[in-house]
């Protein structure tokens, strides 16, 4: 089984609109799907699931939607703690976490600490995450080093990213049908296989995950070789 799957959880709004529901109801349904996919991934033996929950660009949305999403993330982190413990899930976050509302920071820190001993699945949530921000933050961290070597290698650079301990995702899944990466994991996706599902995130279940994995198995990964 592959180690690391990254997912751009897109299409909550369209899912809701198609059903005459509010965008908030779409996000609510999307948050429930996180548990479904985390459980399925853990059962399949996937070790790391990185989920794009809020991008550095998502602040452009109306304040009411941003506030709803912040509350939802905080609530998810609080309410799903016992479920994470039962399923051996360890919560991890990546992004500019210090810029998030205190409520969100408190909830995720509490759940990260409480689940720190779990090892079946790492649930890595990209929160206020941008691929360019991550690269710029890494460069600034390098510039802060007191005794800096003249040149750095790719492996050195990798150590300054938000999650240096995680291997690159073998597979990127995007739901909602758009063919772009929207500033997600720019460094880490360099050789990931990409799978786009037309299903909106609230409709992306275990069956769709299995279809993505089957497609992955059929790919020939050449890494520039033959
Ligand atoms: C993804 O769903 C969730 C976030 C970006 C937080 P969207 O809200 O982008 O849903 P669509 O793309 O408008 O359907
Ligand atoms: C990407 O979805 C970000 C998340 C899923 C958190 P968006 O809906 O923000 O992406 P664009 O605007 O279609 O590129
Ligand atoms: Mg979208």
Characterization of the model:
By secondary structure, the chain is α/β, with parallel strands linked by helices. It has one domain (4-131, 168-218): 3-Layer(aba) Sandwich (Undecaprenyl pyrophosphate synthetase), CATH 3.40.1180. Helices cover 43% and strands 16% of the residues. The chain has eight helices and six strands, in the order βααβααβαβααββα. The protein has helices spanning 12-18, 23-44, 63-79, 81-87, 102-114, 131-144, 154-158, 206-218; strands at residues 4-8, 48-55, 89-94, 121-129, 171-174, 193-196. A six-stranded parallel β-sheet has the order 3-4-2-1-5-6, sandwiched between helices. Helix 1 (12-18) crosses helix 2, helix 2 (23-44) packs parallel to helix 3 and helix 3 runs parallel beside helix 5 (102-114). The longest helix has 22 residues, at 23-44. The chain starts with a strand and ends in an 8-residue tail after the last helix. Residues 9-14, 54, 58, 69, 176 line the site of one 3-methylbut-3-enyl trihydrogen diphosphate (IPE). One 3-methylbut-3-enyl trihydrogen diphosphate (IPE) binds next to strand 2.
CATH topology value:
Undecaprenyl pyrophosphate synthetase
Largest sheet properties: 6 strands, parallel
H and E order: EHHEHHEHEHHEEH
The radius of gyration is 18 Å
Task: Average the pLDDT over all residues and give the rounded result.
Answer: 97
Percent strand = 15-25%
How many domain regions? 1
Q: Specify the structural class.
A: alpha/beta
* pLDDT < 50 stretches: none
The CATH class designation is: Alpha Beta
Number of DSSP E strands: 6
Distance between the termini: 23 Å
């Amino acid at each position: 089984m592959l180690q690391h799957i990254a997912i751009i959880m897109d299409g909550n709004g369209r899912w809701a609109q198609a059903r005459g529901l509010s965008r908030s109801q779409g996000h609510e349904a999307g948050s429930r799907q996180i548990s479904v996919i985390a459980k399925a991934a853990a059962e399949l033996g996937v070790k790391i699931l990185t989920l794009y929950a809020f991008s550095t660009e998502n602040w452009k949305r109306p304040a009411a939607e941003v506030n709803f999403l912040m509350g939802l993330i905080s609530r998810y982190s609080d309410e799903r703690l016992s479920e994470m413990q039962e399923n051996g899930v360890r919560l991890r976050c990546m992004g500019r976490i210090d810029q998030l509302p205190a409520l969100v920071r408190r909830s995720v820190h509490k759940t990260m600490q409480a689940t720190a001993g779990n090892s079946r699945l790492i649930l890595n949530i990209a929160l206020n995450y941008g691929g360019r921000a991550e690269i710029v933050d890494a460069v600034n961290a390098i510039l802060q080093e007191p005794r800096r070597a003249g040149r750095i290698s790719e492996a050195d650079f990798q150590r300054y990213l938000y999650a240096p301990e995680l291997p690159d995702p073998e597979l990127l899944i995007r739901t909602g049908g758009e063919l772009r990466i929207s500033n997600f994991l720019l460094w880490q996706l360099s050789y990931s296989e990409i799978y786009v599902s037309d299903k909106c995130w609230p409709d992306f279940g275990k069956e769709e995950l299995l279809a993505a994995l089957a497609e992955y198995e059929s790919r020939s990964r050449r890494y520039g070789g033959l």
